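hiii, so i know i said id send this last week but things got crazy w the move. better late than never?? heres the sequnce for the chain we talked about at the cafe, plus the structure i predicted for it. fair warning i was half asleep when i ran it
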Amino acid sequence: MNNETTSTNVVEMLNITKYFPGIIANDNITIKLKKGEIHALLGENGAGKSTIMSVLFGLYKPDSGQIKIDGKYVSIDNPNVANSLGIGMVHQHFKLVHNFTSLENIILGVETVKNGMLKMDEARENVLALSQKYNLNIEPDKVASTLTVGALQKIEILKMLYRKNNILIFDEPTAVLTPNEIIDLMKIMKNLTNEGKSILFITHKLNEIKDVADRCTVLRKGKYIGTIDVKSTSKEEMSEMMVGRKISLTVDKKPSTPTDTVLSVKNLCVKDKETGKNIVNNVSFEVRKGEIVCIAGIDGNGQTDLIYALSGLNKISSGEILLNNTNIVNMKIRNRTLLGMGHIPEDRHKHGLILDYKLNSNLILQTYFKDTFQKYSFLNFNEIDKYSDYLIERFDIRSGKGSKTITKNMSGGNQQKAIIAREVDRNPDLLIAVQPTRGLDVGAIEYINNEIISQRDSGKAVLLVSLELDDVVNLSDKILVMYDGEIVANVNPNDVTINELGLYMAGSKRSVS
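okay and structure toks below
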């Protein structure tokens, strides 16, 4: 299908160009959204997808090009103008006030006020009705900083629905959702278009595009490649359009040959600071050299708290954590990394990067104190830049100014690749990888999955945490399923079906051996 103008176009972004220092993020791109369609936007990390959607939402002003909404030329200077035109956006990186409640975040900017007082009862009623209608259950009075990533994503979606927008931008909305939540979201999106709304949908997941999208526009390195009809185009064809080469959509790995135990967790308990109940309850498992152990589960069942305990971000209430036969329960984070732990965190912004630092500084956060990079406490920037340039090339980290790029100006996928580069290159004995392919395109996923398998094959122990059932089944040598803070299944991926995994994750079945 081509990109011709029709009378049913609700959005026309015509010849949009957007520059950033050292890079053309969008180079003369035209995208047209029809009324009532789901139009996917596909491209590698750094291809310009989020940038052009940010132009439509008023976060960036284009350097050239024009925008039409319902056939009329408009100037979208800021998100308030976008909202007034019926445009809403679910952001990949959440735009929330962390010390506000869920309810306060959802209504922020469109509050009902009477005599100078907030009228929260009506807003609460409307938000809860929306959450029930779209199966996006939230706790309205919970403070955002205490919520899981999945819960924060639901708040972002409800923010947009609460404003009754007709043109909806979803920027990687499924990146942190469970398989069942993704299915529910796909139904929501279809229902929204049946109600007359139109959706622009950024995703790296080809299955999702095939399941839900009508058309797909492909971008590569800031340029428009083409717009295709989804039903008549294969996933292989789409991936090749996206990266400019053939991509393997399956994981190729030989059987594991595990040896010595690297991580041993014994009867680990972690208490919830608010309720005092165990959110990690009597968890025990081992990860050996030469194997990938995957922790699967629905978001919010203790996986995050378990990883925080292992990495030293949170204290435990009881139990043991042995890394290379050393009890690390009371060990500082730096000493854990020096003992052989690498950590790719779930939230790259909160725990993975210092966004206002340059890329070179972020790449040495775990090693800046070593003799290679400092002498008498003075940093050796020549060596730092040399090392940073090496990692940028090895891991294909795309950035406008190379090592000097301010990290917050990079795409989310390239920020993730920077963390992976930093952690993997330290050659840790244990690599803890939490959602390592979150927000990555198929080319980067192929690379990262191969890197994880390479770590295993070189004799490293890998503890993988993933909500992606494809990753769980394809990458792991052993699957541990967590439900309500406990390990409820310890299974071989060759001996379990996706349906069985779903039952374990929902707490309907247990099988620990």
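btw Residues 179-194 form the longest helix (16 residues). thought thatd interest u
miss u guys!!
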